[in-house]
Amino acid sequence: MTDKQDLRKQCGQLYHEIEEKGWKVVKQGAEAITIITEFYPGEPCILKSRPEKRWRHPILDQKLTRKRCLIEARLLAKCHAVGVNCPLLYFLEPNRGQIFMEYIGGPSVRDYIKEFVSEEEYETSLAPLMKIIGSEVAKMHMNDIVHGDLTTSNMMFRSVETLEPVFIDFGLGSVSESEEDKAVDLYVLERAIASTLPDSAALFHYVLEAYAKTWKQCKPTLRRYDEVRQRGRKRTMVG
Ligand SMILES: Nc1ncnc2c1ncn2[C@@H]1O[C@H](COP(=O)(O)OP(=O)(O)OP(=O)(O)O)[C@@H](O)[C@H]1O
Question: Which reaction does it catalyse (predicted)?
Answer without folding.
Answer: L-seryl-[protein] + ATP = O-phospho-L-seryl-[protein] + ADP + H(+); L-threonyl-[protein] + ATP = O-phospho-L-threonyl-[protein] + ADP + H(+)
